[in-house]
Design a protein that fits this description.
Elements (H helix, E strand, L loop, with lengths): L2 H28 L3 H26 L3 H26 L5
Helix pairs in contact: 1-2, 2-3
Amino acid sequence: MDFSIIQSFIIYVLPIYMVAFVLYTIRALKGPTISDQVLAIDAMSYDLAAFLVVLSIFFKEPILIGTAIVLALWIYALDIYIAKYLEKKEVGE
């Protein structure tokens, strides 16, 4: 794969990711409900996992893809845990 295409992609996508992270952070801190805050943190985390895959291609380091997969699975498990807590107001089982 051509290195300059990946480098151009990262240069154009990085500002979009930064703006998204700022907006997610604002929503996570000021969200009117806990669901809005959870959704903002989820979106931020999944964007981070996707960006790790892009960086893995850029740096030619396959270990970052494994890291992104583990991060995505951890986020999914945390979503289920939080949803269960919000539904029943108890944690466990």
